[in-house]
Write a structure and sequence with these properties.
Layout: E1 22-23, H1 38-74, H2 80-112, E2 114-115, E3 120-123, H3 124-141, E4 145-149, E5 156-159, H4 161-178, E6 184-192, E7 195-201, H5 223-227, H6 236-246, E8 250-255, E9 261-268, H7 272-287
Parallel strand pairs: 4-6
Antiparallel strand pairs: 1-2, 3-5, 6-7, 7-9, 8-9
Helix pairs in contact: 1-2, 2-3, 2-6, 3-4, 4-6
Length: 288
């Protein structure tokens, strides 16, 4: 069975395909500091922290999956509803683990400064629908729903459909994590001029004012994560920021403590006339 998060196949996208591989600046570049001797120690500590956090994050879903498997294997008198519940737990655990693995893979590529993009003309609505299908088991576990608005806005963007989908997956997963049981998460699409904006809004604790400038940073986890004992590596939003910037867009956050958080990203709309104009300029330069 194909990996839900790891496979690029099966996405129905508008196919004006242009394959490319880009080399991008490392997201963690910084000016050299005098304390060069500290860099190896800090790097070692960062690696240790990541491994410790990953080990911690793996325990709960693995334990849940193990218990569910033991109940399925050891009980012959389970009714169909109980079997469905156990299978749903297994599906949620698998989805979570695959999401963790995918985020770690993307993060490693961003940190090294090399992330291959397979660009094509993509209908953004298809990336959103695919992302919703992927996170559905996580939403069902907390009896949450996603309310869509702006469905009539169906712009095309020029980018990698796999990574565009991952952007939406990370934002929805983040919203689900901080939303209450049975809550509704809002996802809206808005087109203005040459841009399209996708916004994901939860009704959780929100983000404190002093944390908004750093919330997209590497390993950033706000006070809401500690107060709600929410797990995570602090990489999901950092990856969103990196992937959006690779596609020529920007990210943002609107939030009031106690009234939820609204994360959004904006991407340039692909228009065929824009590409034709660029092609004409290229021909003119080559013949001049």
């Amino acid at each position: 069975m194909e990996s839900m998060f790891g496979g690029r196949q099966g996405m129905n996208t508008a196919t004006c395909s242009f394959d490319s591989s880009v080399s991008v600046p490392s997201l963690n570049q910084a000016d050299p500091t005098p304390a060069v001797v500290e860099q190896p120690r800090l790097a070692h500590q960062a690696a240790h922290d990541v491994l410790a956090t990953v080990a911690h994050e793996l325990r709960t879903p693995l334990a849940t999956m193990q218990v569910s498997l033991e109940m399925l294997a050891g009980s012959s008198d389970l009714n169909p509803e109980e079997v469905d519940q156990l299978l749903s737990r297994l599906q949620s655990g698998l989805t979570w683990l695959e999401g963790l693995a995918e985020n770690l893979t993307i993060w490693a590529a961003l940190e090294t400064g090399h992330l291959p993009l397979r660009r094509s003309v993509v209908q953004l609505s298809e990336c959103i629908e695919s992302a919703l299908a992927l996170v559905q088991p996580l939403l069902e576990r907390k009896n949450q729903q996603v309310r869509l608005s702006g469905r009539t806005a169906n712009p095309c963007v020029y980018g990698d459909p796999f990574f565009l989908r991952q952007i939406v997956v990370n934002l929805l997963t983040n919203a689900s994590k901080y939303s209450n049981q049975g809550d509704v998460i809002d996802l809206s699409v808005c087109v203005a001029a040459s841009w399209v904006r996708v916004r994901v809004t939860d009704h959780g604790p929100g983000v404190a004012p002093g944390e908004r400038t750093s919330i997209f940073g590497r390993y950033a986890r706000g006070s809401a994560a500690a107060n709600n004992r929410a797990g995570g590596l602090g990489l999901g939003l950092h990856i969103v920021d990196g992937l959006v910037r690779l596609h020529g867009g920007i990210v943002g956050l609107d939030s009031e403590p106690g009234n939820g958080a609204s994360f959004w990203f904006r991407l340039p709309i692909y228009r065929m006339q824009n590409r034709k104009a660029r092609a004409r300029r290229l021909v003119w330069r080559n013949t001049a």
